[in-house]
Amino acid sequence: MAAVNFTDYDILGFDMDFTLARYKLVPFFNMVYDGICRFLVEEKHYDASIFHDLHEDKDLIYKGLIADFEKGNVLKLGHDGVILRATHGTKKLTMEEIEKVYGKNRIFGDYENFQNGLKSPDGKWRFFENYFDIPALVAFARIVDSIRKMDPGEERSTYVHIWAEIYEALEDMYKPTQCRANKGSFFPNMKAHTYKYIDKISPEIKDWLDALRQNDRKVFLLTSSFPDFATLVMEYAFGPAWKSYFDLIVYGGRKPKFFTESKPFLEVADTHIGLEVEELKEAGEYCHGNSTQLMEFFTRLTGKITPKVIYFGDNLWADAWPSKSLGGWNSVLVLEEMDAEGYVISDGTVKEQENTGGNSSLLDGKIRFEHSSLVTEEEIELMVSQFWGSIFIDEMRDNRTAEEKVMNTAFGDLISQYTDICVPSIEYLAGVPVTNAFTTFGTDRGSNKGFHPGCPKSLLS
């Protein structure tokens, strides 16, 4: 059975947001949502009454959903493109209502494009699995609701224009130049109240990164965030010496375009972006760039023709899919929903197992599911949905035993295809010796073998 051992790699790379830097999700989601709504009210003249408390529609704060902008629907897909559950705006749809819109087989028509690149080629749908834009899905659904209330009998041909206006709000919030200018709703909030949104990392994570760099292994940071914002986040999370943990830092990585385009590397000094460089240097800081030139640098750095690289990230579309399928790297997915749902401790990597014969998952003969101390009750309430169910599996209607359950959602299927292992946090990995061998998902679609320290609750109950 295939396994990942971090000491087997020459190069280990990390995403920043929601990977090395852990966010406090409840205040963060509220802040992002409020900023989107304020822009829509002030700039696009929407009625403020549309955008009530975010938590009233918390079911839409959920990874792996697709918004169909033409139909005004939000969809959860199965591994075969079948629509398992759906809403129109926030209104839950019956199977009969889904069939009326998408046909008797309930197939999402653009599923092939979804599988091949997780992005709509014409902007008519969007895959939501990034915490920076998930609150925008709630805003979209509520505007659809308001239109339905105004014209209850009218069937609209498209809602694409609504998303276009919401996307303007996202661009206004996250445009890199807004950070230095201290404009928009996002960066000023992050600067003034960093402590409200970011957790400080533990000494164990720092020690773990140092251990990864032993025996000539190299560690790099590749983030899509620009130098000024990344520095704000990392200085708060790690402290002023944060750069010392990396052999190379790349900002503005534009993932997944980092793996498909040949944008040059630009030198960075004191958070300012400078001129194009022809050759990367160890301990350098750069912006933009591309994977081809980066791999050439790794070849020079290690003296190996094909250095082995593994990348840690929280995002399927920007991190796991491109690094594995386009970059030829191995990938580790950091998935907080795994922690929110709960998982069984079963692979021997958690210390408390030492007193229970290596199987702390059993309590009085019953499976016991764990949450780490990192996830709060508020976060669990926000990330676990009664309506959508688990992101990993959806109503297995057969006689297979719990041990034989496989992931049958589109999101779960992508995990098994594009990640080698999936963990709840970097904090968990920092508590495991760097020499540990982690079983991978392997080549079986929907496999549950790559979850550590054990399977999520839904795959065993």
UniProtKB/TrEMBL annotation:
<keyword id="KW-0460">Magnesium</keyword>
<dbReference type="Pfam" id="PF05761">
    <property type="entry name" value="5_nucleotid"/>
</dbReference>
<dbReference type="InterPro" id="IPR036412">
    <property type="entry name" value="HAD-like_sf"/>
</dbReference>
<comment type="similarity">
    <text>Belongs to the 5'(3')-deoxyribonucleotidase family.</text>
</comment>
<dbReference type="InterPro" id="IPR008380">
    <property type="entry name" value="HAD-SF_hydro_IG_5-nucl"/>
</dbReference>
<keyword id="KW-0378">Hydrolase</keyword>
<dbReference type="GO" id="GO:0046872">
    <property type="term" value="F:metal ion binding"/>
</dbReference>
<dbReference type="GO" id="GO:0008253">
    <property type="term" value="F:5'-nucleotidase activity"/>
</dbReference>
<keyword id="KW-0479">Metal-binding</keyword>
<dbReference type="InterPro" id="IPR023214">
    <property type="entry name" value="HAD_sf"/>
</dbReference>
<protein>
    <recommendedName>
        <fullName>5'-nucleotidase domain-containing protein 1</fullName>
    </recommendedName>
</protein>
